[in-house]
Amino acid sequence: MFSAYRIGIQGSFDKSGFYFKARHDADTVHINDKTFYIDNNDNNVVSQILMFRFSDSYLNDLAINSQTLSLNSVLEMWLNIDKSNQDRPIHWDSMVAGNRLLKYLFIVDSLSSGNLKIDKHVKLSITERIIYHVDILERKKPLPINNHGLQAMHALVGVAKSGLAGLSLGHQTTLVESAFRSLFNEEGFCLENSSEYHFYSLQLLDSFISSGWYKETRLHEIFDNAKKFSNILFSSPSEAFSFGDSDRTLLRRQIQKKVIHSGEVKEGLFCKPQSGLSLSRIVKDNYYSSLILSNLYNGEFHNHHDYLSIEWFHKDIWVICDPGKFTYNKSEYKDWFISDLAHNTFSLSRLKHDHKNSNKIVSCYKGNNHALLGQIFDSNFCLTRSIEHHFEKIIINDYLYVHDIRMNKCIQSFLTIDSSFDEVVSEHTHSVCLKSREGYIVTISSGSDISLSRGSSDPISGWVAPRYGIKESAFQIIFNYPESRNIINNKTTVIISRVENVSV
């Protein structure tokens, strides 16, 4: 039942109301009968309050918890918050409205058992809000084919089951099945193009199936295909790649809690051309060296510029890492974190890259060593990248052709080194050597001029977001290329080694 209505375990409460911490870095919010308009600039916090997530733990045992805090007073809080914020755009985000609607439906379902009672005027208000939400969501159709839209669609399935608004159950479940078929490609990858959102959409699909509302559909086939794909997203049994709109710390925590399951993480080369991903894993003495090349369009929802960007995991550390996602709130830093200037690729936007319509190719081959290949091109340029993968070394070969030499102004490429590398051992024109707190040494050498940036605010560069809302300074290697050339041909070598009990 809780899975059907997407009720978790968030929030705590006492006689005075609720205490809610939306994220680890967010302030605790006290919600009571005086809470109406949510005066907070953090959209993530506001959206969770508008979904009534502060009351999830309370809903897990209504019969007992309503003795501490009456159900009437909780529902009055819901109604106050709902009505007072309904003119805000975020209030009618598909996910926010859908989860709020599911909470109302949960109350209706719970009351049908006859074990709980609420005042008649409150019950009438709940019913009115359900009808109002259905009307709004029906007018918003077609709902977006992403995890937000699907949660609203699922809520409308719940309404159809309740019989409150005359919706056809068969029609609503068919819409959900069709949306999931569009959300995952034929290879099984979620088209939100993000490790985190692939796993999230998989969990969403699993919870829908577990609700028992979709017995006449074939959602289980979509789930099986998506689950099979998931294995390519792991760098090791305990770590996942974090390209796209992903929170690496969240992924790690969910793996540890077995919310995310890796299955068997095998050595080898794996290529998913439709999904734009190519992966190499080498296993030595039960340690993993894993390299991924992503070349996919991210512009529909999150717009991270993962075009020929790479991540490299070695043994128990990240060497070359994705910048991560910092915030959904508008800011210069948000813009930088999603841009190509923050990713392990070229500054293609300076070439007026047609992100959506450019041609993107990935491949892999095994000769003497593993190699990943990728190419991206449009009418302005063609960039080819090949990466030779050894257990302790990668060799990156880049070839960029620019059609109009006048466009080649200030072209750069970048590698972000994990923030655990916080000491410069040596720095030269064509090479740099960094040391980590754990005693690893990474050496980067290149045919181009190299410069280092770390924690710069003007211009913004040298940052990573290990988890949402937190940014840390990290060394960003910047490769600078001569202007007024229409061909750039560069080779970069990155070597990782361990220094134990040695003063470097």
Structural summary, described in words:
There is one protein chain. By secondary structure, this protein is α+β, with helices and mostly antiparallel strands. It contains twelve helices and 25 strands. It has helices spanning 43-50, 56-59, 62-65, 71-84, 94-111, 120-140, 147-162, 169-183, 195-210, 219-229, 248-256, 332-338; strands spanning 12-14, 17-20, 29-31, 234-236, 239-240, 268-272, 277-284, 287-295, 307-314, 317-320, 359-366, 370-377, 381-389, 393-402, 412-416, 421-427, 431-436, 440-446, 449-454, 456-457, 460-461, 463-467, 470-473, 475-480, 487-498. The strands form seven sheets. Strands 11-12-13-14-25-18-17-16 form an eight-stranded antiparallel β-sheet, with no helix packed on it. A five-stranded antiparallel β-sheet has the order 6-7-8-9-10, with no helix packed on it. A hairpin with a 3-residue loop joins strand 11 (359-366) and strand 12 (370-377). Helix 9 runs antiparallel to helix 10. The protein is elongated and about 75 Å long. The model has no long low-confidence stretch (mean pLDDT 94).
